[in-house]
Write a structure and sequence with these properties.
- By secondary structure, the protein is an alpha+beta fold.
- It contains 8 helices and 8 strands; from the N terminus they run E-E-H-E-E-E-H-E-E-E-H-H-H-H-H-H.
- It has an 8-stranded antiparallel barrel with strand order 1-5-4-3-2-6-7-8.
- Helix 2 packs antiparallel against helix 5 (about 215-240), helix 5 (about 215-240) runs antiparallel to helix 6 and helix 6 packs antiparallel against helix 7.
C-alpha cells in the first residue's frame, strides 16, 4: 500500500510583490528558518471529462523536492486531505490506479495540466526546535495540456501554510492572524489544480443549467438510486485502504440500492436493474466477509483490553493483527 499522510494546509492569495510578515510573532512560534528555493514540476492526470477534479481528487506526477513521485489526494474536510505517495515512475503505479477504478472505470487517465512552481520555503519552529509548520511562497506557471483550453497558460503567486505532522491546528490560526494583519487573504481556490483548470478553461456564454428538482415519483426514485451509487463509488477507495467503518457503510449503501431495485421494479427498467442486483448481491457477500472480521476483531480486541496486564505479556496485539490480516487476504 502507498505511503499515506494527513495533509492539513491553508492557502492565501499573493502577488510577486507580497512579502511575508514576521511570523515569529504568531503564538507558539519561536523562530523562522529559511530553507531556500525549490523548483517543482508537476503533471496532473485525469480523464478527458475531468472525473477526478469534479470530485476534488488530485493525481499528479511531480519531480523536484524531497517527496518527488506520484501523489494521490483525497479530500477529508475543508483544508484537510489524505495524500498517498508512490515512488517516481513513468507509468501510474498500480496501487493508485486501483483506488481510482470506481471513478474512472474504463476511461483513460492522461495528463491534463502541467504546473511548474518556484517554491520559497520557510520552517516555523517552536522554542525547542520542533517543526510547527512549513510556509511556502509559490510562484506558479500553469499550462493546459488537453481539452478546449489546450496550450492556454496562467500564472499566479500564492502562499501555502502546511501543518507539521502531529502538529496543533492552533498554529495555523495563529499564523493566519498575522497574515491577515498584513493584508493577506485566504485563496478562493481550494487547490492549485482547481485554479489552473478555472483559469485555462475557455469562457462560455450563458449560465450553467441548474439541477432539476425532482417532480415525479420516478424522479425521486432516481435521485435516491443516484445517491446510493455515489456512496458506493466514494467509499470504494476507503474500503481498499481498509479505513475504519468503510466496509460497513459501503455494505449499507449496497443493500439500500439493491432494495430500491426490488421496491421500485415497476418504475425502473428491470432489464438493467436485475443484472445489477445480482452483482450487488455478490458485492454484499464479499463485503460481509470483511465486516464479520471487523466485528470479530473489535470483540476480541475489547476482551484483550479487559484482561489483566499479567495475562497479556508478549506481542499479543501484534499477533492478533497478523491473524486478522491473514484471514482477510486468505
Amino acid at each position: 500500500m502507498a505511503d499515506t499522510k494527513r495533509e492539513i494546509e491553508r492557502k492565501y492569495e499573493a502577488t510577486d510583490d507580497t512579502r511575508l510578515p514576521d511570523l515569529t510573532r504568531a503564538a507558539g512560534v519561536d523562530r523562522s528558518v529559511h530553507r531556500g528555493l525549490t523548483e517543482l514540476d508537476a503533471v496532473y492526470h485525469d480523464t478527458a471529462d475531468l472525473r477526478l477534479a469534479s470530485d476534488a481528487l488530485t493525481l499528479r506526477r511531480r519531480t523536484g523536492g524531497a517527496d518527488e513521485g506520484w501523489h494521490l489526494k483525497f479530500p477529508v474536510a475543508v483544508g484537510i486531505r489524505d495524500e498517498l505517495h508512490e515512488p517516481l515512475s513513468d507509468d501510474l503505479p498500480r496501487p493508485l490506479a486501483a483506488l481510482l477504478r470506481s471513478r474512472v472505470r474504463h476511461a483513460e487517465i492522461a495528463p491534463v495540466v502541467r504546473l511548474r512552481s518556484a517554491r520559497d520555503v520557510h520552517h516555523l519552529l517552536a522554542d525547542d526546535g520542533t517543526l510547527l509548520a512549513e510556509v511556502s511562497v509559490d510562484r506558479v506557471h500553469a499550462e493546459r495540456l488537453t481539452g478546449e483550453g489546450r496550450g492556454t497558460t496562467a500564472a499566479w503567486t500564492e502562499i501555502e501554510v502546511e501543518l507539521a505532522d502531529d502538529g496543533d491546528p492552533a498554529v495555523l490560526d495563529a499564523v493566519e492572524k498575522r497574515l491577515r494583519k498584513a493584508g493577506i487573504r485566504p485563496a478562493k481556490s481550494s487547490s492549485k489544480l482547481a485554479r489552473a483548470l478555472a483559469e485555462t478553461t475557455p469562457a462560455r456564454n450563458g449560465e450553467k443549467p441548474g439541477k432539476d428538482t425532482p417532480r415525479t415519483a420516478g424522479d425521486h426514485v432516481l435521485a435516491y438510486v443516484r445517491k446510493q451509487i455515489r456512496a458506493i463509488v466514494d467509499l470504494d477507495p476507503a474500503v481498499r485502504r481498509d479505513l475504519p467503518d468503510s466496509v460497513h457503510r459501503m455494505r449499507v449503501a449496497t443493500r439500500r440500492l439493491r432494495s430500491s431495485f426490488k421496491t421500485h421494479r415497476r418504475i425502473l427498467d428491470r432489464e438493467v436493474t436485475d443484472p445489477l442486483g445480482a452483482e450487488l448481491k455478490w458485492l454484499a457477500a464479499e463485503l460481509g466477509l470483511d465486516r464479520d472480521q471487523e466485528v470479530l476483531d473489535e470483540r476480541i480486541g475489547s476482551r484483550v483490553e479487559a484482561l489483566p496486564a499479567a495475562l497479556t505479556l508478549g506481542p499479543v496485539r501484534g499477533r492478533l493483527r497478523a491473524w486478522s490480516a491473514a484471514r482477510r487476504t486468505g
